[in-house]
What does this fold into?
Amino acid sequence: MISDPMQAALSEQLNHEFYSAYLYLAMAAYCSNADFNGAASWMEVQYEEEIQHATRIYRYLIDQGVAVKLGQINQPPSEFGTLLDVFESSLSHEQSMTSRLNDLSNQALSEKDHATYNLLQWFVNEQVEEEATVTAIIAKIRLVNNDGYGLLMIDNELGARPPAPPVAAE
Ligand SMILES: [Fe+2]
Ligand SMILES: [Fe+2]
It folds into this structure.
């Protein structure tokens, strides 16, 4: 069983993961409307991954015997600017998620809650990968400096991202 403050903090994180999914779906819609279909498809894969993150926390809470209550999900923006702006919004969102996960890890450590700490380390590692991926995409978009052909190449490359693999049953 996990403590009440830890339950509350993980429930909040569950909500933030659903918000992340919602944000990426909003970005997918925005990219589709801007005819960046590759970027839209990349964002849809990211949406699926964030749903999986939320599901991972949900299952952990259920396994810990928590009576999960789902909260309201905030409305994401619908305008994101240029393709560079879209990915910069993604990076700053991921950085804020990393900081939340670090705070949660500190909380788990201070409560000597090693099971929750282990769960959170998976997320902390995942954040390193997500930030690195988005940072690399931003670097490429900066490199082509608004050149139409360059942006088209990047969009094609983004469209090649494979679907999110299913969450392993634990
Ligand atoms: Fe996530
Ligand atoms: Fe993420």
Remarks:
- The radius of gyration is 17 Å.
- The pocket of fe (ii) ion (ligand 1) is lined by residues 17, 20, 50, 53, 97 (CB under 6 Å).
- The mean pLDDT is 96.
